[in-house]
Amino acid sequence: MRSTVNLQQRALLLGQAQKMFVTHGIKNLTMDMIAKSLKMSKKTIYVMVRDKSHLVKEVIERYIQEELRMFSEIRSNAENPLHELVLIVNRALEQTEGFNPDTLFDMQRYYPECYQMFAHHRNTFLYQQLVENMQAGSAQGFFRSDFNPDVIAKIYTGQLQILVDQSLFPSAKYPFVEILKEYLDYHLRAILTLNGHEELTRQKEMNRVKI
User: How far apart are CA 151 and CA 144, in angstroms?
Assistant: First the structure.
């Protein structure tokens, strides 16, 4: 029973920390703030994680595992490659609602090992999922066949650094989710065939699309 409770507490801690990192950034978020939000003592938290660096690492590992499960579920449930991409886009928008761009900068500057984990996941797993999706979509006539999926997937995964650039998109003027919505709509429409546009219209009529 005790180990089950500890696992539940740990899951609660990591889930709450992830939410707070996303909305507040990492640097300015203290362990006191996390403990208070959970109505836990810091002593209880430090039984589960050694320090804040350890917590950040655990949160990133949790996020990566969630993404692996999410992509597997999406691919299993999608009707076709375009529907799969729509589901990926929708999930990306859900995850970035209220996202604070400082989160990535804080991770890159103060927790470089954690940032490398995040970047490696983005540049390998996410990249591969996108390549496979575009190849399947082109084969089925939803996506154009006259572009290089390798190049487009790398542009897609690399754009995050541009979208969080505060010199280009200061968050006071450009909420991150709105920037991402514009970019995803731009990306999606750029690779569609006429058949793909018709399928996207059908997806929108079914209220499946959030862009």
Answer: 14
